[in-house]
Write a structure and sequence with these properties.
With 159 residues, the chain is an alpha+beta fold. The protein has one domain (2-157): 2-Layer Sandwich (Peptide Methionine Sulfoxide Reductase, Chain A). 33% of the residues lie in helices and 24% in strands. The chain contains five helices and nine strands, in the order ββαβαβββαββααβ. The chain has helices spanning 24-27, 49-58, 85-102, 126-129, 134-150; strands at 2-4, 7-15, 35-42, 67-68, 71-72, 79-82, 109-112, 116-118, 155-157. Helix 3 (85-102) links the parallel strand 6 and strand 7. It starts with a strand and ends with a strand.
């Protein structure tokens, strides 16, 4: 499997909402305000925050509002969080540049980070643990392959 060089861990969870300690079932209703999110643990001496933002925008349909691919609803919206003004500036500049390049609005919401709620254990490493799941085979794997083809220079091999 190939992962992003400089990234040591990705944790699935929820962020951007108003309820405390949301579950997948609660978040999936769209009423908690949370979006499915990932916390990325990375080494900034190997991969920059700016590169992570490029990967973020390059790994999705940046113009789709309230969803990604077949996943629809505010819980699947494109949302990116910053922890300081430098990160906010990087995100904003990259979003504006992408919007200009595509000649359309980029749907990603940009907010200050407040709280990340770790998702249930069964959501962690889901692709690796459920390789024959139809969603994994028909949505996740094609999206991963597209990402790998777009960013081969950022990938590392793992065992």
């Amino acid at each position: 499997m190939k992962v992003l060089r400089g990234v040591s861990e990705v944790i699935n969870g929820y962020a951007g909402g108003h309820s405390k300690n949301p579950t997948y079932q609660e978040s999936n209703t769209g009423r908690t305000g949370h979006a499915e999110a990932v916390e990325v643990i990375y080494d900034p001496t190997i991969v920059s925050f700016a590169t992570l933002v490029d990967v973020y925008f390059g790994s999705q349909n940046p113009t789709q509002v309230n969803g990604q691919g077949p996943d629809r609803g505010s819980q699947y919206r494109s949302i990116i969080f910053y922890q300081n003004e430098v990160q906010k500036k990087i995100i904003t500049q990259k979003k504006e540049a992408l919007s200009s390049l595509l000649n359309t609005t980029v749907a990603a919401e940009v907010y200050p980070f407040q709280k990340f709620w770790i998702g249930e254990n069964y959501h962690q490493n889901y692709e690796r643990l459920h390789p024959n799941n139809s969603y994994i085979k028909n949505v996740s794997i094609p999206r991963l392959r597209k990402f790998q083809n777009k960013f081969p220079h950022l990938l590392k091999s793992t065992h």
